[in-house]
Amino acid sequence: MLDPTEDLPLYRLRQATMDDFPFAESLTHKNMDGYYRRHNLVWRGDLFLCSWRDSENFVLEVDGAPVGVMRVTEENDSLHIRDVQIAEGWRGQGAGTFLLDTAHRWARARGLAECQLRVFVDNPAARLYIRMGYRPAGSRLAQLGAIRHMARRV
Question: Which of the residues 24, 65, 87, 122 could staple to 69 if both were Cys, CB 3.0 to 4.6 A apart?
Fold first, then answer.
């Protein structure tokens, strides 16, 4: 029997299937569209599909309804967080923190040294990443463009 005083997590993360691809692509495209336009980039659904097939993909749910996506790959001694996408209306409610905390636990469980990600310089999510210990990574030259590469030890 459930203890009614026990805190039940609001979010549930499950492994995605190809049936989730339309939701994931639509959410990612919608969330990234402004950044792509501002930085003169073109969305390529075919490249997103290739990346989807090469990644471990997860859907974040609340009461069985999808509200986010996280995609990761393992590269050398790092867990590379390819996407953390949260649907409008669910941002600022701990969903991003939940996903990042989960990725950090996975990286530790896999014996990896760090998590890394990339973020557009004008993306407000960069504040969350900094708050969670991410710092610029890579060469100084790599930090001059529209996208920042960031990493943190786990």
Answer: 24
Q: Hey, what CATH topology would domain 12-113 get?
A: Aminopeptidase (3.40.630)
Query: How many Å apart are CA 15 and CA 119, to the nearest integer?
Result: 23
Compute CA 26 distance to the chain's CA centroid, rounded to the nearest angstrom.
15
Q: Global pTM?
A: 0.90
* Domains in the chain: boundaries: 12-113
Partnered with residue 56 across adjacent β-strands are 72
Per-residue pLDDT tens for 64-90? Answer: 999 999 999 999 999 999 999 999 999
| DSSP strands (E only) in 12-89 | 12-15, 56-62, 65-75, 78-86
